[in-house]
Design a protein that fits this description.
It is a single chain. The protein is built from seven helices and ten strands. With 226 residues, the protein is an alpha/beta fold. It has a six-stranded mixed β-sheet with strand order 6-7-8-3-9-10. A four-stranded antiparallel β-sheet has the order 2-1-4-5, covered by helices on one side. A hairpin with a 7-residue loop joins strand 1 and strand 2. The two termini are 25 Å apart. It binds adenosine-5'-diphosphate (2 copies).
């Protein structure tokens, strides 16, 4: 069973106006549990659009999004929001941690929103921080952490609710090469050890080469890179 299956996804903006742009034209993609797939394409090709559709933040004009075997297009908005919170974690180039909360609290909050009890949420947050080497930083606010540390906290937050699927948009794009390397290594360990499925948009071909597969967006379709 694929963690994520996109089939026949079509998506355009400003349909029926002179500014119309058709971004996806029948995109198909599967990501298996424990698999990391790199998504490589030039700016404007539709990577963010594809990630937002895969993560149930946006709906396609046509096609089906299946997450963990559940076909999402026919579900209610409420059901899709619940599924997004439970099944999908997002990481962006800029971490968007909440500045007034500690690292630990940033990882606890999404769990509370998902109905986890505070004690269990705190324990899981500590375990995640330890997993990425930040046990000693639990009580620091983001401003007191380095860029690489902040991004590792953002990973922990994305994984707080043990999602099936991790979607990342240039997760190391804002980091220097050494820090990027360390953050990427942690990400791949998590994929290998937890069976997480990851779809990671990147311009970094070295990182892409270390994932299981690379796909490109070509005229609105997903193609396997050679
Ligand atoms: P990428 O992430 O690969 O840079 P995007 O998915 O952000 O690409 O955008 C793909 C195309 O869709 C671009 O031409 C962009 O200008 C256009 N686009 C994206 N979002 C919108 C929107 N909300 N309204 C109109 N056009 C959009
Ligand atoms: P909401 O505020 O819609 O209830 P959640 O708090 O459930 O969203 O957010 C779940 C994840 O989705 C978070 O990681 C958040 O970063 C991401 N997210 C929510 N809305 C957007 C958006 N409009 N664009 C990008 N990411 C979003």
């Amino acid at each position: 069973e694929a963690a994520l299956r996109l089939s026949g996804i079509e998506k355009g903006y400003l349909r029926g106006t002179p500014g119309e742009v058709i971004v996806l034209r029948g995109a198909d993609l599967e990501v298996a549990p424990g698999e990391a797939v790199a998504l490589v394409a030039p700016s404007g090709a539709g990577k963010s659009t594809l990630l937002h559709i895969a993560g149930l933040l946006d709906t396609p004009d046509a096609g089906e999004v299946v997450i963990g075997g559940e076909a999402m297009q026919s579900r209610s908005d409420r059901r899709r929001t619940i599924a997004r919170r439970r099944e999908v974690g997002f990481i962006y180039q800029f971490h968007h941690l909440l500045p007034e909360f500690t690292a630990l609290e940033n990882i606890v909050l999404p769990q509370l929103a998902n109905g986890v009890a505070p004690k269990a949420a705190g324990e899981r947050a500590r375990a995640l921080l330890a997993r990425v080497g930040l046990a000693a930083r639990a009580d620091h606010r983001p401003a007191a952490l380095s860029g690489g540390e902040q991004q590792r906290v953002a990973f922990c937050r994305a994984l707080a609710n043990a999602p099936r699927l991790l979607l990342a948009d240039e997760p190391t794009g804002n980091l220097d090469p050494d820090t990027s390397e360390r953050v990427f290594a942690v990400l791949m360990e998590l994929v290998r050890e937890t069976g997480l499925a990851a779809l990671i948009a990147t311009h970094n071909l070295d990182l892409a080469a270390r994932m299981d597969r690379t796909v490109r967006l070509d005229h609105g379709r997903v193609v396997e890179a050679a």
